Amino acid sequence: MSSTLVDRLRAGLPDGAVVTDPAITASYANDMASFCPAEPPAVVVLPRTAEEVQHVMRTATELRVPVVPQGARSGLSGAANTSADCIALSLVKMDRILEVNPVDRIAVVEPGVINADLSKAVLAEGLFYPPDPSSWEMCTIGGNIGTASGGLCCVKYGVTAEYVLGLEVVLADGRLMSTGRRTAKGVAGYDLTRLFVGSEGSLGIVVKAVLALRPAPPPQLVLAAEFDSVRAAGAAVCEIMSGGHVPSMLELMDRTTVRAVNSFAQMGLPESTEALLIAAFDTADPAADLAAVGALCEAGGASQVVPAEDQAESELLLQARRLSLTALEQVKGTTMIDDVCVPRSRLGDLMEGVEAIAGKHALTIGVVAHAGDGNTHPTVCFDAADPEESRRARESFDEIMALGLELGGTITGEHGVGVLKKEWLARELGPVGLEMQRAVKQAFDPLNLLNPGKLF
Amino acid sequence: MSSTLVDRLRAGLPDGAVVTDPAITASYANDMASFCPAEPPAVVVLPRTAEEVQHVMRTATELRVPVVPQGARSGLSGAANTSADCIALSLVKMDRILEVNPVDRIAVVEPGVINADLSKAVLAEGLFYPPDPSSWEMCTIGGNIGTASGGLCCVKYGVTAEYVLGLEVVLADGRLMSTGRRTAKGVAGYDLTRLFVGSEGSLGIVVKAVLALRPAPPPQLVLAAEFDSVRAAGAAVCEIMSGGHVPSMLELMDRTTVRAVNSFAQMGLPESTEALLIAAFDTADPAADLAAVGALCEAGGASQVVPAEDQAESELLLQARRLSLTALEQVKGTTMIDDVCVPRSRLGDLMEGVEAIAGKHALTIGVVAHAGDGNTHPTVCFDAADPEESRRARESFDEIMALGLELGGTITGEHGVGVLKKEWLARELGPVGLEMQRAVKQAFDPLNLLNPGKLF
Ligand SMILES: Cc1cc2nc3c(=O)[nH]c(=O)nc-3n(C[C@H](O)[C@H](O)[C@H](O)COP(=O)(O)OP(=O)(O)OC[C@H]3O[C@@H](n4cnc5c(N)ncnc54)[C@H](O)[C@@H]3O)c2cc1C
Ligand SMILES: Cc1cc2nc3c(=O)[nH]c(=O)nc-3n(C[C@H](O)[C@H](O)[C@H](O)COP(=O)(O)OP(=O)(O)OC[C@H]3O[C@@H](n4cnc5c(N)ncnc54)[C@H](O)[C@@H]3O)c2cc1C
């Protein structure tokens, strides 16, 4: 059957677009999540047009072969992992920016465009594509849509979902569907566009996207504030956000993270702090806004408040923040990165709870957080070669999600469910919610060929 | 059967919640759209709790009776119109604001809360619920969610969809489903919350909503600019929006609308202008922003640019804009209000096209537009007692939608499809899109009991 499959795929795809060399296919087996099962796919396809994607899906439907859509495989939940019987459908060659329109404030792109490439292209026109996952230099727009990615600027500008106006999607059976629009507003029928955002490749293959842009804001100015406890830092976040401020960034790094970044990249961050809060404004007068927020931090017990001197210092602090997850990986060789989001009023509770869980399991857990949104990434550091420690890592990971739900939060703020959090999704949604989610999946993919085994 | 129905409904609802008096039920037959079929419902129910709504839906499912959810019935597409065999399920008695939380920046409300009441309640806490349809003093949050309502401030703050974080929904069979979250971010499973926004009561009954709030912005300052042609005004809108400006409002009234408002409310607007552009900023320095925009208008040929002197004058201009649709209704007794949204670069084309359509059919069509978003309301004025004129009104209404689609737009920017635009929805979506929309409907409402005959 595999040779039938390959022959049939080749019949509608150009030379080189169908890869079966095991040395290459093996490298398409997984994204960046630990602990998620993955096998090399039967075949990798690298289409360059929507028609070629349609051919792949028609073939898959005829032969009943599962398909796993893939972008840059920078995901953190195993959502792009493959099984031995599947087609890995990589969209990275569909990487053209088709249009940037400053009057309509939209960009039209293929799914394989790298986030940073789009950001740069629109900036050249004085425009801004906000969603900025820390993986922005490698991840694709298709993957960002698949996972509804967030980033540092979400606290002011929202997540990917807010910027997807319209999509072209190849359905499981190979038909092409247009959803949404090129206009700023529109309510013609159900919002299937938003339904696709965050669907982790399980409803269809995105082959084109119309994205909303904003005017480029002034450059942001950054401030760092050191706190003696994570609770105090969490309380300061609440003061800032309920005080009417609209920072363009409000991030938190705990001591473990600060130290990891220092030893990974010699950043010279203050090692004695328990929690480093990083705030930024891109307003007309960012210095004034930072002064107000700095005063709130001092009133909230910050031991040090250091505004960046200039753009370069601001960029350095941002860079330190962006390196956090990678730096934490060096601590013990492997990490499990959690993604619990709580109402921001419960941020302190969550952070303290994670400390307690780390203590109980004798593990290092660094927490880096999009604090302004209550979205935390407790990152469990462990030695994957040590089965006992690995077990404790997984247990603590789960306990953190349980704590998040208890505090009125969600198991995933931006990284998605994938295979990593399937059981937890069911818990969060409850039986009725889960059943309706499955009904939607069934409506789009009755043969369960699109990324099976993910989400549910 | 009707007496069985009424008895069964009464068995689970308090006294007074089930209304069969024909004099009263007749008043629940329709919303504010012209030309849409409507019959008094078999019975009106006015539940006060989610449990009571569940009882209604369980009864409806058992007896296979259609249900039409209703808010204030201020809709403009017949989406809340009833048929003789149905239950009108009015949510207006579920009107409690359950929570306003300044730290988490959320409000939790029942569906019957009036938009203006919520706005005032959150403003008292220094917060802002942006979606502001011009009907805000009567329409309900449930209806706003049902239609994904927009308003004047969308150009800066987006539509209702952007502010709905979580929902509790009673499904067709009476089960209660929670979707979404209380947190700022979250990607756990498909975004069914957004799927419900704009679904016009056809997927379930919203009984509770978690809404996102923002800090209250500074008061806005308004400017009016007069243009000699709608094309010049449209071009100025493009200059403003591609010039990096972020107005809190950018509205356009054509001459017909200006005159209608003057004769309705003696507003003293400039009658000689072909197009009146109204821009507002709620920034830190609105006067500076208005000066920049005023200069762009002058460069674009504006004959007059008049910044409001103060808050009171600003409020007057806003009030004039908000009265537009009501004022146009006085011109000939009846209106059909269109809602075409085009890419803003095509605004001039749309406005000129509408003028041509009005000329061809010898009709008065006033255009008022959320110009910054390209969302226009060409409003056909006619005498409903004149069958010939009514026929021409309907024809021109349809030609306007055809023109909108031709210009790359959508048939509805914010008022929805209802019964008024069903055939047009099919045109806009195309066969594949329509089929998938129906599949989603089927997944949620297999017996087709929820607002049947709307949308499709
Ligand atoms: C160092 C690091 C930092 C990160 N920081 C962030 C962060 O700040 N915020 C954040 O949200 N995430 C972050 N991530 C996670 C990850 O980068 C994002 O989820 C990203 O959006 C994935 O994009 P990708 O192109 O790598 O997609 P992949 O990982 O390849 O795929 C992700 C999902 O999308 C689906 N998919 C991909 N392309 C398509 C398509 N065309 N059509 C349909 N489905 C498709 C896949 O099937 C899969 O389910 C980080 C990851 C790393 C490694
Ligand atoms: C003068 C005037 C000005 C207007 N200006 C604007 C404007 O600027 N922008 C704009 O977008 N609209 C505008 N509208 C249209 C209308 O006011 C809005 O669509 C409004 O959101 C409708 O709210 P409602 O409570 O009246 O809902 P209804 O008209 O009663 O219902 C609207 C839809 O929502 C459904 N629905 C209602 N409640 C629920 C519920 N709890 N659960 C599920 N479904 C439900 C109904 O079935 C129906 O499909 C205007 C109307 C008028 C008369």
From TrEMBL, chains A, B:
InterPro entries given in the database record: FAD-bd_oxidored_4_C, FAD-bd_PCMH, FAD-bd_PCMH-like_sf, FAD-bd_PCMH_sub2, FAD-linked_Oxase-like_C, FAD-linked_OxidoTrans_Type4, Oxid_FAD_bind_N, Vanillyl_alc_oxidase_C-sub2
Domain FAD-binding PCMH-type as annotated: residue spans: 37-216
Pfam families: FAD-oxidase_C (PF02913), FAD_binding_4 (PF01565)
Domain of life: Bacteria
Cofactor: FAD
PROSITE patterns on file: FAD_PCMH
Descriptive protein name: FAD-binding protein
Source organism: Streptomyces physcomitrii
Keywords associated with the record: FAD, Flavoprotein, Oxidoreductase
